[in-house]
UniProtKB/TrEMBL annotation:
SUPFAM superfamilies: CheC-like (SSF103039), Surface presentation of antigens (SPOA) (SSF101801). GO terms for biological process: bacterial-type flagellum-dependent swarming motility; positive chemotaxis. This is Flagellar motor switch protein FliM. It comes from Pseudosporangium ferrugineum. One of its GO terms (molecular function) is cytoskeletal motor activity. The keyword Acetylation does not apply.
């Protein structure tokens, strides 16, 4: 998934990002982040006592400097460790959504809020809310890896935050967050080198009985569909080489020696691929061929 529109034509190859997430990896992350977003929406509704929702918008791979350039300033960025995995995760939420959340926690009606740094009273409220949200992040990823998200610090300007090197690859999950009447797009930034081994390990895990049943059913349907698909089959002699002027001078009635030994069977082909051998014949008034063992099989006998 990507929030950037696709376009036809060649795709630019980025040598700084030689390895990309596969479709299966994106699907696995999508399931984890959708679980997180659903439970996080329920948490916000309960904690803030106002109708709230969080929904996954996109998952994309960027360089860290590209991600930082896309963020607003100021914004609220939670710097998070995810032991036992290495690296730093960033949880970014718009300042307006944070101020609205705090207003609801203090019994206010929400609505338009001033853009200013948080006070000493408001900061513990925000830290408590973020820690609860990180608990939902752990729940979303528990089928992939058991992580212990821990809030380290809160920053307001991504330009001054050196969580990663500018050219480091990161995975960005974007969410549409609604808190009462306030709407914003928040994001989670995962280090690519941290999450990739987890996704690759997931591919080697034995499927559950339900997953195995789905795969077997899909395989049967695919096999049945291919079995009923019509294809063109040709029976041919061995090709010969001719000079261009001989081909140009051909006239009706001319005889062209094929050079195919009468003792050698013909080739049965599909899309230039030989899959059997046969001898010519007829069935009633129609031409036909009889499939016979290949010359190599005859030699082995």
């Amino acid at each position: 998934m990507s929030r950037r529109g696709g376009s036809a034509g060649p795709t630019t190859y980025d040598f700084r990002r030689p390895i990309k997430l596969s479709r299966e990896h994106v699907r696995t992350l999508q399931i984890a982040f959708e679980t997180f977003s659903r439970s996080c929406g329920t948490l916000l509704t309960t904690r803030l006592r106002t109708v709230s929702s969080v929904s996954l918008v996109s998952i994309e791979q960027l360089n860290y400097d590209e991600y930082v350039a896309s963020l607003s300033n100021p914004t609220v960025i939670a710097v998070v460790s995810i032991d036992p995995l290495p690296g730093t995760v960033l949880l970014e939420i718009a300042t307006s959504a944070v101020m609205t959340s705090i207003d609801h926690m203090l019994g206010g009606p929400g609505g338009a809020q001033p853009e200013r740094p948080l006070t000493e009273v408001e900061m513990p409220l925000l830290r408590g809310l973020l820690e609860r949200m990180l608990g939902e992040l752990r729940y979303g990823f528990e089928t992939l890896v058991d992580i212990q998200p821990k809030l380290r610090e809160i920053e307001y300007n991504a330009q001054f935050l050196r969580a990663h090197q500018p050219g480091d690859a990161v995975v960005i999950a974007s969410f549409e967050m609604k808190i009462g009447t306030e709407e914003c797009v928040s994001s989670i930034c995962l280090p690519f080198n941290t999450i990739l081994p987890v996704l690759e390990k997931q591919e080697t895990i034995e499927p559950t009985p339900a997953e195995r049943l789905v795969r077997e059913t899909s395989l049967r349907k695919l096999t049945a569909g291919l079995s009923a698909a019509p294809i063109d089959v040709a029976v041919r002699f061995q090709p010969i080489r001719m000079r261009t002027d001989d081909i140009v001078d051909l006239r009706p009635g001319d005889v062209v020696p094929l050079g195919h030994p009468t003792s050698m069977p013909l080739e049965v082909t599909v899309n230039e691929t030989v899959f059997a051998h046969a001898v010519p014949g007829n069935q009633g008034a129609r031409l036909a061929c009889l499939v016979v063992p290949s010359p190599k099989e005859e030699e082995r006998r």
